[in-house]
Amino acid sequence: MELRTIKTFHTIVQSGSFYKAAEILNYSQPTISMRIKQLEQDVGAQLFERGKKLKLTRAGRLFHERAGQLLAQYEVLDHTLADIRQGQAGLIQIGISEPTASLIFPAVLRGFLHDYPDMSVNVSVDDANTCSRKLLEGAIDFAVCGEPELILENYFDPFFHDSLNVIVSDRHPLADKASVNLEDLENECLIFTPANCPIRIQIEQHLQRAIGSRYRKMELTSSMAHQYYVRENIGVSIFTATAHSEPIEGTKVIPINNLTISPPVGLLTNQKEEHFDCATKDLISRIIGRFQRDPH
Question: Domain HTH lysR-type, which positions (predicted)?
Fold first, then answer.
């Protein structure tokens, strides 16, 4: 049973005659008659009463009702497919690391979905290495994260470099300082991200050079949770300025004078960007633009 045959039947009923349907569809009358004959064979029932006046059989009335629903659904599907081809509809699956996932991306996504109401976006919040693995597995289309461990198939293109501050409780002795040096963190408890985090490794290398091993460690895997532990004066945390752009009450963010690390944030893909559809390209552009304007 072909869709064009169903459309022919529906047009006959709507127009009231085979002749008018032939004019509307730009078919010859023999073609119209042949299609209806084929449709009745496919259905296994007579759809029109034979006679001078066009009249549907009981089976014809039921088929007309269902055919109208089917054609309406097909029209919606056809428009959806057209939107997908033009990059106006579909699903984008993104991997994003903190703090971008919590502090920057929601506002970007709100504007994007307003302009692309037929697009769906799924977000996986993961560290850079997990984003890289998911990208390799095809679970996400691209990621916005720090620089992961190198994988031949994936490409990391940094578009922003952050700075590092220390966050302390407002009850901590360092809270009165306008800035600190790494030497001021001697004997402090440092709250760190996991040991395989590239930024943590760099921070500890600088600490080793400045104060040796004269500091204590606590590992807290959720980077956005650090400030809440700091607020309770459990320890201090060295983290990006972006992550500390909205410090919670009871904490203070202090610049570090002699820590020259600029953690990158970038686009992680395993295909060239020109292969993305126009909506995905626009979303990527909005994310990068948000960082370039003022991530803090």
Answer: 1-57
**Alpha-carbon gap, residue 95 to 105, rounded angstroms:** 11
CATH topology of domain 164-255: D-Maltodextrin-Binding Protein; domain 2 (3.40.190)
Give yes or no for a contact between 212 and 183, defined as CB atoms under 8 angstroms apart: no
Burial of 295 (0-12, 13-18, 19+ CB in 10 A): middle
Q: What is the pLDDT of residues 200-238, one digit of tens each?
A: 999 999 999 999 999 999 999 888 899 999 999 999 999
Q: To which residue do tokens 């994988």 refer?
A: 151
57 sits in the region (left: phi over 0; alpha: psi -120 to 50; else beta) called beta
Q: What is the pLDDT of residues 41-71, one digit of tens each?
A: 888 888 888 776 788 888 888 888 888 788 7
Q: Find residue 120's DSSP bridge partners.
A: 91
Residue 255 amino acid letter: P
Number of neighbouring beta carbons within 10 Å of residue 225? 13
Is the pTM above the cut of 0.70?
Answer: no
Q: How is residue 279 written in tokens?
A: 């909506």
Q: Which residues, in sequence order, are bridge partners of residue 48?
A: 56
CATH architecture of the domain covering 3-85: Orthogonal Bundle (1.10)
Residues of the chain with CATH 3.40.190.10: 90-161+264-293, 164-255
